[in-house]
Q: What sequence folds into this?
């Protein structure tokens, strides 16, 4: 670990007065195919180490790979969704390097003949659209996983010994590489995040990966360089590896901008290297110096036939693409009568899918938004979890809204019913039953509570009868208190008005 002190970080706003940032993103998506890229091994996440291996993915002599057609199809669909050109003929290549997690001594990847090229993805940040050019989308295989045992941090430093799990070795991996994204300026961190979020949503809509960043099925490397404003040359870039959440993508860009500006201000030089992002501190630290393509001695893979996708098949795949996230957002904005800003809030809150599913389960768009952006967002925030991690389903939220609409419960009781749902007591209807939460209708109990409120508050009654109609609120409050919130306030008010006008 380096002990040399780095120049002080520059304030973010100040960075922008002297430098222009240039971001670039390399995203790896682990495909959700049933079997690996070049063998029939299973790909289940979290299986016992080294139980999903065979001579092919262990690189044993004499074994021969066969390409997974489902993975090729998934890669082409990703390319088509990104507006890429699909190669009519391309090959796999061997990327040679020696690491314990790569049993063959090379990774089967694609080099100068990627399957998809020249696409783009438009992302929106604060109402501005940024076009991200996609340089290439290619197919390769994942590596195994090193486990460093005996150290405090799980890293190799201080570890007692290391183990390798080859279950992941050979799982199909799609790499999506952007061209450098100029012109983002102060929005560079947000543009980087928005790009990864949009890409994740596209891959999810295609159904080719579960894109779980926390499990590593979507991983992002963030390239960043700074150039003095007005300079015609780009600066030297660093590559921050395996940034594993959307928030970290944004933070790593922000940090690297501040760090690099500090180095450049002090008259230093940016070293082209890979860096590691640290979730806990929001900082990056130096990794290894970056290899050049020539270090990998790429050459065409002799054991695999070239990929030559039939044009008619590609056209069929293009025609069969699902509705993509941007089109879906535009449609729902219109269907639900939202402003673009309201839609942006929904998306930023991670609530679009949940609201959409709640509407599909029968709730009105207004009710669905009210619950997910209000009460549920508050609870997720208090618990420090994502909305989607709350123990309540869209169908249950729709049921809650339905119970309110039917007058079975009011908003206050609905919140108590929600407590029960979140505590695992069942669906809203069941919780209302078991906790006795239903509102009291025009029953003897409610009539008695109304009578008691009138008798107990002669001063208020006099005011109401004397024409101060707003004073009735105090009587409604008294009835609600007696019934512990189980009465319907509008019904109570009507009953009071009837009694007091007699
Ligand atoms: Zn295998």
A:
């Amino acid at each position: 670990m380096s002990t040399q002190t780095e120049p002080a970080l520059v304030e973010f706003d100040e960075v922008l007065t002297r430098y222009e940032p240039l971001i670039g993103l390399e995203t790896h998506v682990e495909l959700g195919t049933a079997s690996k890229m070049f063998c029939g091994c299973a790909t289940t996440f979290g299986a016992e180490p080294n139980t999903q291996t065979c001579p092919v993915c262990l690189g044993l002599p004499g074994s021969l790979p066969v390409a997974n057609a489902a993975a090729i199809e998934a890669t082409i669909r990703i390319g088509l969704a990104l507006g890429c050109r699909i190669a009519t003929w391309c090959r796999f290549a061997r990327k040679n390097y020696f690491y314990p997690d790569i049993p063959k001594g090379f990774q089967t990847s694609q080099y100068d003949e990627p399957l998809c090229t020249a696409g783009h993805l438009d992302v929106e940040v604060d109402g501005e659209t940024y076009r991200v050019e996609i340089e290439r989308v290619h197919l390769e295989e994942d590596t195994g996983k090193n486990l460093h045992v005996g150290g405090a941090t799980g890293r190799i430093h201080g570890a007692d010994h290391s183990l390798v799990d080859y279950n992941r070795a050979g799982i199909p991996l799609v790499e999506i590489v952007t061209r450098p994204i100029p012109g983002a300026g102060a929005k560079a961190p947000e543009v980087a995040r928005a790009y990864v979020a949009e890409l994740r949503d596209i891959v999810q809509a295609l159904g080719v990966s579960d894109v779980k960043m926390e499990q590593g099925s979507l991983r992002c490397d963030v390239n960043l360089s700074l150039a003095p404003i007005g300079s015609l040359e780009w600066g030297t870039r660093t590559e921050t590896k395996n940034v594993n959440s959307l928030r970290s993508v944004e933070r790593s860009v922000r940090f690297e901008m501040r760090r690099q500006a500090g180095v450049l201000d002090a008259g230093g030089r940016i070293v082209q290297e890979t860096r590691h992002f640290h979730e806990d501190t929001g900082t990056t630290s130096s990794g290894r110096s970056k290899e050049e393509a020539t270090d990998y001695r790429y050459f065409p893979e002799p054991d695999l036939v070239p990929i030559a996708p039939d044009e008619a098949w590609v056209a069929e795949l293009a025609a069969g693409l699902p509705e993509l996230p941007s089109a879906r957002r535009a449609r729902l904005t219109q269907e639900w009568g939202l402003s673009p800003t309201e839609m942006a809030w929904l998306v930023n809150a991670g609530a679009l899918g949940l609201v959409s599913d709640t509407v599909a389960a029968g709730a009105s768009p207004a009710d669905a938004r009210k619950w997910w952006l209000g009460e549920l967002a508050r609870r997720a925030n208090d618990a420090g979890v994502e909305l989607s991690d709350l123990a309540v389903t869209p169908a249950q939220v729709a049921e809650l809204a339905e119970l309110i609409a039917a007058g079975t419960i009011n908003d206050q009781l609905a919140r108590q019913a929600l407590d029960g749902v979140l505590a695992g007591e069942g669906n809203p209807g069941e919780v209302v039953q078991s906790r006795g939460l239903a509102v009291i209708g025009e029953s003897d109990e409610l009539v008695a509570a109304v009578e008691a409120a009138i008798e107990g508050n002669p001063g208020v009654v006099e005011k109401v009868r004397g024409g101060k109609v707003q004073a009735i609120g105090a009587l409604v409050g008294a009835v609600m208190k007696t019934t512990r919130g189980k009465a319907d306030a509008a019904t109570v008010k009507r009953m009071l008005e009837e009694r007091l006008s007699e």
